[in-house]
Amino acid sequence: MAVRDVALKLLSHVYWHEKAEFMYDEDTYPCWTLFAVEEGRFFYGIGEQKGEAGFGDIVVCPPHIGFQRRTLEPLSFHFLQFVWLSEPSAEEAGMWSGKLAINDRERLASDYLYLKQLSGWDEESTLHKQHMLSDLLRLVIIGRDRKVGFPSESDDLMEKARQYLTDHAYGSLSMLDLAESLALTPVQFTRRFRKAFAQTPSQFLNEMRLTRVRHLLEGSALTLDAIAAKCGFENGFYLSRVFTQKIGMAPSVYRSMYHV
């Protein structure tokens, strides 16, 4: 199988919302296993690879390899298992193993939303889910290609910025202060962040916040003002305006889709 071939067969898919902890600290699976994080962070260990993963990361474990994991905060994620239609070589398998970054956050959030909506296992739903999984892996490839030739210093600096945004996404946050802490002007910061991750810092931040908003609309009876306070928005009115613009429907309409 060529590294760029993402032909596969999906075996299972489970979505976990705000999982407090894993049942086992380590497990081994007979097939390829993928953890796709929507919200929260967790520690992982696969062989000699160890680290933390959050939104924008997928963690892939090959068959029969011990998968260590520990939640660092309540974790919402997609758990998918699959087999390649053509078994990869050892070198290719190594390129697909461990934490893989996806820079196109808007496309990633869209894939996650589709996966959640496809709850059945009829033939059509399964094919759609399989397409979403293939798309996740294709986004990894595209992200790798876009980073070819980027100065490592720039990547490191923007990764630091992305981590800061992830850690402080739901509180008071100043893009101006963040840019100054990186010794950049706001314009320089925006340009370098977009170059590294194919979106502006504000777009990245809004996607993280709107992901949490969607979860709270789906699973709670909180008012829009209360949700805004928990997700880093000034108030419910502003949240409603941003949500409607980005998601394509008002929060009340979105919430009604999940309440019977």
From TrEMBL:
UniProt keywords, alphabetically: DNA-binding, Transcription, Transcription regulation
Q: Which SUPFAM superfamilies match?
A: Homeodomain-like
Pfam families from the entry? HTH_18 (PF12833)
- What are the TM regions of this chain, as residue ranges? none
Task: Report the Gene3D superfamilies cross-referenced here.
Answer: Homeodomain-like
Domain HTH araC/xylS-type span(s) in chain numbering: 159-257
In its keyword annotation, does this UniProt entry include DNA-binding? yes
What the entry lists under PANTHER family is as follows: ARAC-FAMILY TRANSCRIPTIONAL REGULATOR, HTH-TYPE TRANSCRIPTIONAL REGULATOR EXSA
Q: Tell me the protein's name.
A: Helix-turn-helix domain-containing protein
Please report the organism this UniProt entry assigns to the protein: Paenibacillus planticolens
Organismal lineage: Bacteria, Bacillati, Bacillota, Bacilli, Bacillales
